[in-house]
Amino acid sequence: MQNMVRSVIDRVFRERDREFFLGCCCRPPALPPALSELLKRPQAPVMEYYTALRCWPCRKWVIQTSTVEKGDFHAKFETHLVISKLAPLFHIHHEFSVRNADEERVTPALGGFSEQAYSLSQFRLEEEACRILTSAGYSRLSFAELAEVVGDLSSPPGVTMFGPQVTVEYALFNDLFGWCGERNAANPPLST
Question: Has residue 191 been placed in a domain?
Fold first, then answer.
């Protein structure tokens, strides 16, 4: 486990530093301007998650990188970019879905996800986002690093959504204690 990851987990989970956690989660992250520009490019629809919340441990974007329609073949490719507000860390994964043409199908689409791109548009987006973020001092976490169990920690009492074990992903990209939920309930977003 990276020292930076361990340090943040120790501060939030072992020391229960609520003010540090909420201070990070409730401030708008200072994104590199080049990343903001990349996410504004018109060639790929982008959906940002958690925007209705004033306070959350990460920012997440889903970028629809391409669609392919050739005869009966229909596929959609998207890339997920998630940036922690607790430390300069991020992760990227790619997804695809293909229309299921099987007459005995149970589901209308087949899909999958991976750290490796499925299309050139996903690959190019990943390369550019990683270049921008790493040059700004961010570190990328792999699936293996995200899934690492923080050995001596367990989910807080009453938290069953993530299971009993705390992983790096749950610790750095989610609100296990419900602190953000309390803050968001006390300060609802402005209506638009």
Answer: no
